[in-house]
Amino acid sequence: MTGSTTLLAPTLGACAVAMVVAMAMRSEPVYDLLTTRAVRNARANRRAAGDPPDGVA
Questions:
Q1: What is the pLDDT of residue 31?
Q2: Terminal-residue alpha carbon distance, the chain
Q3: CB of 53 within 8 A of CB of 47?
Q4: Counting beta carbons within 10 angstroms of the beta carbon of residue 52, is it exposed (0 to 12), middle (13 to 18) or buried (19 or more)?
Q5: Dihedral sign (CA 14, 8, 29, 26)
Q6: Can you give the pLDDT at residue 54?
Q7: pLDDT for residue 27
Q8: Cα four-point dihedral sign 24, 27, 28, 31
Q9: pLDDT of 5-57, one tens digit each?
């Protein structure tokens, strides 16, 4: 954005290290974990409120 590329190499290096660490840990992506947690909480809240389970009309 400024026309300067002095930080390009360090930024690419940091991205590469982050990818290697993420692959080495073999963990589930953060947004997938958050989605799973939100769905689980929504279902628990519906059960607590006495609503029918998913798929039941």
A1: 94
A2: 54
A3: yes
A4: exposed
A5: negative
A6: 66
A7: 82
A8: negative
A9: 899 999 999 999 999 998 999 888 889 999 999 999 999 998 888 876 666 65
Examine the pLDDT at 4 and tell me if it is beyond 80.
yes
Q: Look up residue 47 and give its amino acid.
A: R
Spatial distance between the Cα atoms of 37 and 43, rounded to a whole number of angstroms:
10
Question: Which residue is listed with tokens 């947690």?
Answer: 37
Q: Helix, strand, or coil here: 54?
A: coil
User: Quick one: tokens of 29?
Assistant: 């992506």
Which residue reads 């954005």 in tokens? 1
How long, in residues, is the chain? 57
Sorted by sequence, the CB contacts under 8 Å of residue 54 that are 6+ apart come out as 43
